[in-house]
Amino acid sequence: MKIMQRRQRSIFEHVMCTLILFFLVQTTYAQKGLDLTYINTVRDSAGHIPSGYVPPLISNGSLNMLIDFQGGQEQKKYVGMTPGIFWAGRRPVAAKGELISFGYFGQELKIDGQQYKNPS
User: Which DSSP letter does residue 78 get?
Assistant: First the structure.
């Protein structure tokens, strides 16, 4: 009797699946001309991020990610939470309340060799 072995998915595959799902949903809504009123503006009238802003959580059941309003994971604390890619529900033995982190990704915008910090 053959025992089928289940292939372990890499972290990269989990991240890519989650991001693809996120962007497919966005594209589907846009193509159908559906109202995207669930998207909120995150800057206040003075051009700063509101004090209570926390990036939304995206998860596929294996990995969790916080993606900020610019589509990246700037390493800034938002109400005590720093964006990153985390193993869902897994914590190292020594850590209190922190999930196992797989790092983060950022973004960079360059036009004609000039780098822009905040796209507008």
Answer: B
